[in-house]
Amino acid sequence: MHSIHKIGKSFWYITSVSLTDRPILGMVVGSKKTLMIDAGNSEEHMHYFLNELQKREVPNPDLVVLTHWHWDHIFGLSALPDTVSIASKETEREMEKLIPFSWSDEAIDARVNEGVEIEFCAKAIKEEYTNHRNIKITLPDITIEKRAEINLGDVTCIVQQVGGDHAADSVIVYIKEEKILFLGDCIYPRMYAEKVHYTISETLRLLDVLETFDAETFIPSHQQPISKEAFDKEVVMLRTIAKYTEVCKGDLPTIVKEYENYVKRELTEDELETISHFADGY
Ligand SMILES: [Zn+2]
């Protein structure tokens, strides 16, 4: 189940849930305005977070930033009619494509068969929406092209589109005074594809951008907040596997062997999975 936590003076978040694919949602509380990060996978998800925050005397958000177009980050937006929503232009374009869709089991299954939807999300949507399928796609009020700086009063959020394999529209939110980098799903592989994959060039480009932020806490949406040390380790792993993918021309067994020689131990499940995503993206 979910729990609510606070980091620093101004940042609250709700933990993720894997069965229904609920991501972490964040709330940045300034002295003038409050900004929410991501809208959740349903109105229920959103309401749960807001209710829990109300008990802790955290106000409802004036603004909400969507990290990218995937269902689990945007379906809750219809529960925030009075909040100004912000997303990248590309996120808006992708969300527009969802408006005509029906969310009945049959319609979702048909889209999986056509290759429009993926099985992983279809399953999670059915787990989240057991009682109803009254899903309303609400488009963002404001779109940004590259970067926006939002002053909430004593705390500043930088919203910047960083892209990446997972979703080209991805934005991060950097909470300057707290040194928190809310990553959304940007460091994850591409899911909407025949095979889940990473590409070498996009991964290296994205990591270069992420490393320009002076952060102490990193938040990948479907895990839990991690320290700089843990993030740096992840970065080294991704960069190294990307390098060996290039050297070994995407040949899975050779990459595994080379990477094993490099780390001088048996590989973890996470490393093996990452290597196969790189091999599939080659
Ligand atoms: Zn995603």
TrEMBL record:
Keyword Transmembrane attributed: no
Keyword ATP-binding: no
GO molecular function, one term: hydrolase activity
Domain Metallo-beta-lactamase: start-end pairs: 23-222
SMART domains per record: Lactamase_B
A Pfam short name: Lactamase_B
Name the UniProt record assigns to this protein: Zn-dependent hydrolase, including glyoxylase
